[in-house]
Structure formats: C-alpha cells, structure tokens
Amino acid sequence: MAATKSQTTTKTGLSTHLLAGGAAGLAEAMCCHPLDTIKVRMQLKNSRRAAIDASAPKSFLGVGQRIVQREGVRALYKGLGAVVSGIVPKMAIRFSSFEYYKTLLANKETGVVPTSGVFLAGLGAGITEAVAVVTPMDVVKIRLQAQRHSTVDPMDVPKYRNALHAAFTIVKEEGPMTLYKGVALTALRQATNQAVNFTFYQEFKRIARQMQGLDELPSYQHLILGGVSGAMGPLSNAPIDTIKTRIQKATTVAGESGWTRFVTVTRDIAQKEGYKAFYRGLTPRILRVAPGQAITFMVYEKVKAWIDIWNARSQHIRLPSEKYA
Asked: Solcar repeats span which residues (predicted)?
C-alpha cells in the first residue's frame, strides 16, 4: 500500500506521549482488566482436572461467574495494581518509541513512512515495551491473578498481598531475573501485537479520512477503528500468549534454561491437553484486547488533540481538529 500523508512523521514531544498514552492506558486498564483475569484463569486451567470436575465452567462467562461466586467481585481485579503501576511508562514507551522508529524509517526527503515502515516500527515498539515494562509487569500480574483466594474472607490470606509485595516476594524467593521469565515470548507477543495493531489502525484511519475528506476523525471513529485493529493481534499470536502465561505462572526451577522450559511447557500442552489448548482464553483475550485498544486509541487521540489545540492556541494558531474537540 502506498504511503500517504497520514503516515508522514511528525514531531511530538515526549510529554505529549506520556500524558496522552498514560491517560489512555489507565482508562483501558480500568475498563478491561476483569476480562484479562478471566483469560489468565482459562489459560491456566488443566484439561484433565477440568474433566474430573464436572461443574468446572467451560465458557469465559462461566469462569467469570465462578470467580465472583467463590472469591468475590474484587477478585476480577487481581493484579490491577501491577498493570496500573506500569501503564504510564508502558504507553509512553509504546507511542514514543513507535514515533521514533518511524522517523528512522521515513523517507529522508519527504518524511513519508511506507506501510512496511509502519509495520517495522510497530515491531520495534512492541519489543521495546516488552523488555522495558511489560514482562516484569506480566509476571507480577499473572502471579496475583492465579491466586484462588477469596477477597471477601479476611481469614483467607493470599501469598501475594499486592503488586509491590508480589514483586518483592518473587525477587526474594526466586531471584530478580524471575521478573523477566518469558521475556522472549513476551517480546514476540508484543512485537506482533503492535506491528499488526499500528499497521491496521493507521491504514484504516487513512482510508476513513480519504473517504470522508476529513483532516481528523471524530472520536467514535477512532474507537471503532481501534477496536477492529486491536482484534487482529490476538488472532495472530494466541499460542504464544498461552505458553508465556504458563511459563510466567510457574515457580523457577534451579538449573532450568528458558529454552528447556519453553519446550517442556509446549510439549506438555500439546500431548496432555491437545492443540486446542493453545487457543484457550482466546475469546476473553479478544474481548479484552479489542475494546482495550479501542479505548486506548480513542483516549490517546483525544488527549493528544487537546494538547495540540492548547499549544496552538497559545501560539494563536487554529487547527482543523478543533472542530472535533
């Protein structure tokens, strides 16, 4: 697909990415975290144990209902602290690194980035955020979400009380590198997610702007386009996410390499549970990621537009996007 004006690099300060990305990430986490908890529980479910327990729910709605019944409504938000504490740097890194990589891949004369450049910039952004923030955040989040304790019974004391306590306990008992368990798979997941996500979103946005003759789209269209593009990632890398979740949930075994653990987990899932198990939790993941990306892009675009309008007004410049603010 040909490069267009919508894929021309622009200079935006890091503070803009920090504010807009942080606001978008916080809104996304607060709205969608329960679906992520259900997804993790489904991915950690063992098929053989579930076969013995005839009452074990098989649908994502059933899993969510059982969590609420046995552990309380707040249990759906286990691990939220780990997500919120990392969401601002995660989103700041995602959007700022994406824009930075785009400048490296842009045509030096025109500043235009081809679609392949957008895809590669997305790959780079996903790897960057995975190494810098997402992997340790995921390890802590998954350990918290995997705990099957009641949030309404004060006598039911979990091993990990909150995100900070979980991180401290993991480092103390298993070493600091445990926080980076599954980093390669996380980087692969995030890279494919963001490459597909940014590429589809920017292309969808380009087409929508051309068809309507608009300089900027209204918020509801950012919401729709973000949701559609956000669903693409989970469809492309579901097995990676399932294997990563199993690896990060397990405690560290002395002397076991990351590759050995990967092979063992992958083989066990395939032999003991079947290949369908690699796609367990896909429905809640799509229901988590798609609206999450919809919210992220809508809030990000809106907050960024507000900042641009504020800066323009301070310089007595009127922007086309002001009519949508």
From this structure: 12-104, 116-207, 217-306
Closest to 199 (Cα-Cα) out of 122, 103, 297, 299: 122
CA 227 vs. chain centroid, Å, equals: 13
Q: What's the whole-number mean pLDDT along residues 76-82?
A: 85
pLDDT digit string, tens, across residues 136-146: 988 998 898 88
pTM of the predicted model, to two decimals? Answer: 0.71
For Cα atoms 58, 224, 95, give the angle at the middle one, nearest 5 degrees. Answer: 95
- What percent of the chain has pLDDT above 90? 29
**Residue that has been written with the tokens 């589809």 in this structure:** 200
- Rounded (10°) angle between helices 135-146 and 183-212: 100
Q: Which residues pair with 8 in a beta bridge?
A: 112
Task: Give every CB contact of residue 177 below 8 A, 6+ residues apart in sequence.
Answer: none
Cα–Cα distances in angstroms (integers) from residue 150 to residues 73, 79, 147, 186, 228, in the given order? 9, 14, 9, 29, 36
Structure tokens at 48: 């053989």
